Amino acid sequence: MSAAVWADTRVRAGAARGFDAPVVLRPRHDVSVAERLARSAAAPEGAAIATEDVAGWLAERARAHPFEVTRIPFDALEGWGFEEGTGNLVHRSGRFFTVEGLDVSPGGAAPGWQQPVIVQPEVGILGLLCREIDGVAHFLLQAKMEPGNVHLLQLSPTVQATHSNYTRVHRGGRVRYVEYFTDPGRGRVVTDALQSEHGSWFLRKANRNMVVEVHEDVEPHEDFRWLTLGQIHRLLRRDHLVNMDTRTVLSCLPFADPHTGALHRDAEVLSWITGRRAAHRLRSRRIPLAAVAGWHRSADRIEHSGGGHFQVAAVAVRAGNREVGRWSQPLFAPVGTGVTAFVLRRFDGVAHVLVRERPEGGHGAALEFGPTVQCTPRAHRPPPAFLDLVLGAAPERIRYDTEHSEEGGRFLAARTRCLIVEATGEEAPARPPAGFRWVTPGQLTTLVQHGHCLNVQARTLLACLNSLEEESS
């Protein structure tokens, strides 16, 4: 008996007696994923719908379903009310989310503040389904209505659902395609990371950002279409078309990094954010909404006494293609259009963007990396560093400039102007101010795989940056 046959006989005999079965080791990384993503990003058209026809398809889906969002007074909310004693805005079921108060203490000499905050202690799923069509990776996007969306209908991920949604707490219809993200084995996971939501408005809210690849033929519902990355990247340059949840999932895609050099080694970048988290003293605690200082409640809004920041409002919703056809709910309504921007510089030919440590009262981690600029200029006094640079940039320096909506399920008409602006060494030195650090897009792609390293604004800008061929190559 040969040695190989003898060894195989021993393995089979051991398995029969309950020992470990033979195993086959697999590569830790699938190098083909990055190659296939690059092919998809280079495909300006797909097999299912022409890029130029997407806006018309969205308009057709809007005509096919009744959509209506109306601001109402708080006492017209169905199932919602202000809790006796705390004044918290809660749903009678005890599920979904609550609007409570948040007390934030930065520590040291920095002043603290209080504000309303959304408390939703559950993890949702933001999932993109992927499959190859004619040899090119396509992603299944949905024409989804959210009450706070500008234009109501935008391109959302295949699945965009809270835990309450997909477990049908609301007793509505099932969430289409959710089984590909909840049932192991239905497809191959391309990426899966727990990411934060808006730390200024949510308290420790997170979602699983997932991309799952399937090889079976998945027939799209009429509200869904398969698109290549190249098509999605072109649509990212149009105002209020690709929603926030799609943008954050796109940022998690494991694109290949063509560059091996950077101003700072990856370990140094990780050490910087770890050290800043360890030293950070920001403390947040929940307080009753009725006890929040500097805010007052009227019949139809809760707003800051200075008139800035945001309001808490109430809306009634009618939507023909949602799991529940009509409902009412609170929404946060920002005052003014936000600005988020990456300042970009090239060092020895390699693009770098300037990130800033961003402590936010609602983040689970002490802080995350944010964009160079993240503010609402109307409410931010004094203006933050580099705001004048990005708003005053000459047209030839602007690499990206599009207005996007923030999460429409909780925020009403929350508009953000997203910018990527190339700067000179005089405007943005290699040794930036304290709290800032130069990193490459490839380093951001590595960081985002871990979760809770880039805030949602930085992830949107990373998705936009990856859509620009000259910056991502």
Automatic annotation (TrEMBL):
<feature type="domain" description="dTDP-4-dehydro-6-deoxy-alpha-D-glucopyranose 2,3-dehydratase">
    <location>
        <begin position="267"/>
        <end position="465"/>
    </location>
</feature>
<dbReference type="Pfam" id="PF03559">
    <property type="entry name" value="Hexose_dehydrat"/>
</dbReference>
<dbReference type="GO" id="GO:0016829">
    <property type="term" value="F:lyase activity"/>
</dbReference>
<dbReference type="InterPro" id="IPR005212">
    <property type="entry name" value="EvaA-like"/>
</dbReference>
<feature type="domain" description="dTDP-4-dehydro-6-deoxy-alpha-D-glucopyranose 2,3-dehydratase">
    <location>
        <begin position="52"/>
        <end position="253"/>
    </location>
</feature>
<protein>
    <submittedName>
        <fullName>NDP-hexose 2,3-dehydratase</fullName>
    </submittedName>
</protein>
<dbReference type="InterPro" id="IPR038153">
    <property type="entry name" value="EvaA-like_sf"/>
</dbReference>
